[in-house]
Fold this protein.
Amino acid sequence: MIGVYQLFLRLVDRLPLPSTKAQQRFALAALLSQALIAVTGSVVRVTGSGLGCPTWPKCFDDSLVPIPQDEVPWWHQAIEFGNRQIAVWIVVTTSIAIVLAVTRARRRREILIYAWIMPLSTFAQGILGGITVLTGLRWWVVGAHMLVSCAMVWLAATLYAKVAEPDDGAEIETAPAGARRLVAGSAVVMALVLTAGMIVTAAGPHAGDRTNPKAIDRLDVSIPLLSLTHGLLVALYVGLLIWAAVLIARGPSSEAVRRRVKIVFVVVAAQSLIGVVQYFTGVPALLVVLHVAGAMSVIAEAAILYRLMSARVVRGSDRTTDKLAA
């Protein structure tokens, strides 16, 4: 196994040496691709195209690509097949690119681990996506697929933040310890918010397949009750963020942290507005997609904020964390 890895390193060393800025771009591409696949997955769901390709890994039993079918409209096939192609060509490509970049640059071990998680998790997500199709879009499998994407966005955002840090720097606190604990607590609550949102969707009008909606497994629970639970968790999340922001404003905090917490509030406010409008307008498809995109933005910004609060920097300089504050 060691010999295989050494061979891999020798092959990677034939590539140009990427600068830190180039590595950041690769990491950003990996982050955006992880968010993109979640958004396109929501498009599949709200358009009822979940079984546009009714089998996996092929689109049909006897065809890798979509073929004319009376029972499956072509646009459902195109949307589902397109989502699969994004996973294969964009997510996989960006995941491999960041692995090659940080390996060639011989970055520290934690960066290498985060980078390798990208392609490995993408492979796992592909398997889970296949299970989702083969089980007929069971709500809990679809939900798990979505929540894994959320976790991947957090990890990709953390990788993006870590890549900007010097490997030989020192780990220092750049915000009050209490504020960091509150942000960590808010991340736990955010996970509950996302889970509650997933359950609301499982009971909502967007089943994921319109060719045979009666066959789709739906969660038979009161949507108003679920929405209330989701809203209360959002309120708790915002409350923890406000508390953390007060501590950040009053205590010794880096400029990067102060700027990032403002960005987090902006995306959270926009996401909350979309959620409210979505609820009172009957959950239109477009707003569902925007709500998923907003969720990915909140996750990414929160992850970067958390990392910036305890970052690896050159002592006496806030220059590294300021790269992420813009």
